[in-house]
Amino acid sequence: MVSKLIDENSGFDYETQTYHSVRAPPPAQLADENTPLSITDYVLTLYKSNSNKSNSNSFLVDAATGHCLSFSQLQSYITTLSSSLLLRIGLSSGDTAFILSPNPLHVPLLYLSLFAIGVIVSPSNPASSVSEVSRQVQLTTPVIAFATSETAHILPSLKHPPILLDSPEFESLLHCEHKHQHRVVIRQSDTAAVLYSSGTTGRIKGVALTHRNLISSLNGAMVLRQESRVVAMCTVPLFHVYGFVYCIRCVAFGESLVVMNKFNLELMLKSIQQFRVTNLALVPPLIVAMINSPTRGYDLSSLQIVLCGAAPLPIPLINRFYTLLPNVYLVQAYGMTETTGGVFRTVGPYESKRLGANGRLAYNCQAKIVDPQTGIGLPPFKHGELWVRGPLIMRGYVHDEVATSTTFTADGWLRTADLCYFDNEGFLFYVDRLKELIKRNGYQVPPAELEDILQSHPDIVEAAVVPYPDEKAGQVPIAFVVRTPGSTIDESLIKEFVAKQVAPYKKLRQVSFIDFIPKNATGKVLRKELVKLALSNVGPSRL
Questions:
Q1: pTM (2 d.p.)
Q2: Which option is the CATH number for 12-429: 3.40.190.10, 1.20.200.10, 1.10.3470.10, 3.40.50.12780?
Q3: What is the per-residue pLDDT across 140-186, written as a single tens digit (0 to 9) for each?
Q4: Of the candidates 416, 502, 415, which has an alpha carbon nearest to the alpha carbon of residue 465?
């Protein structure tokens, strides 16, 4: 129930301790949840209603080869492929399809075709090991796999033989004529996709997202729709929720989409120039690569917006980004696989200049900042665990009732395990993962705070801070640092630099220099690997 005590600036309800969105409603409201509707039908409906459609001759473009699909081809292929998968292959609504492929041109087409017939899409990292794929297949029990000639060898045997996206067989599925088109009735509550959580804090989990979740995500993203023609470029893996939702959104909004099979900085810069890219989707490591590599000789004047998500971007890096590209809006967002991607985002020039902010809450969603000790909701500027609720939130974890019940409260709130706060204008600020806070003598030390300070030093490219066990203090913060090429900065200078800016209990105990910070595909620091590296040594003095 919404009270009359909601602050119109922050969206905070002082009676229920709940934050409400301060955004205006999207131009089109969500359909009733009981109305049969697939995400594919919703995407195509949005596209047809969009007056700023992409040039039909270059809708989907492969950056490496220049091969492209027009939108008319895309619509035709969705109709043909979905019929072929039903009639020739024998797939049925409720089946699961495992997808093990990089970002070729056909992946967005495959997603939409499978959605259209009620088949659950389950994409995985093509760099996965045999054991990782085996775990994922056990979770989702797919009946068929789509792969490439490079990835098929690690697939287990399934009900149907695998289909290679780079084979004549797949091409034949795109061009096979069917006299009768079979329409499958899909409920919005049906599972559309199972994506895999990063696994950085435990065993990989399968996140079940419904058609309603994906439809709600697109509906909330309408605030991002631009008046002018957009040429978007996706460097983000399409198996991750970020790239997964982004490519679907581009289709719905009629935006040309340039995709990359594998990230290559030079290819990205060339493609921005060649295709006059206006919107670029990146993760923090690629922002770092862009900042630290010369961009001279490339015409990047077409760029208007760079979207950065999937992991925090420190303020020092944001400042360096604006030094390099002062006329580009850096749009940040906060989301999880469990929230169908971004549930907070910045929009427009004013919000994008709010350094450190992860944006404002999506329309139709609610949030809380909860004291981890007392469970009490907190007002603006108070730090606590972020809880979110709304139509974007996942159905649950596949075949894991314990994890699902632990993540959700009895009244439907999703516990994010992220320490955050709101300001008085409804902007969310991420502080750190609750589980990654370093406990030193009873005080909490957020690694992200120390990493921001370290990365503000001109001699430091990247840094990561992790806990190290200490008999007296419990834990102490230690840092792993990547120096800029040619730098001679040493441990004592770095420790002194940090000590001048923090309370005594936040001072670094030790600094180690390494060649790179280990991260997953979307830029999250693999802190467990760094902790193992630290513990493998005799002690901090031997790091």
A1: 0.82
A2: 3.40.50.12780
A3: 999 999 999 889 899 999 999 999 998 999 999 998 877 666 778 99
A4: 502
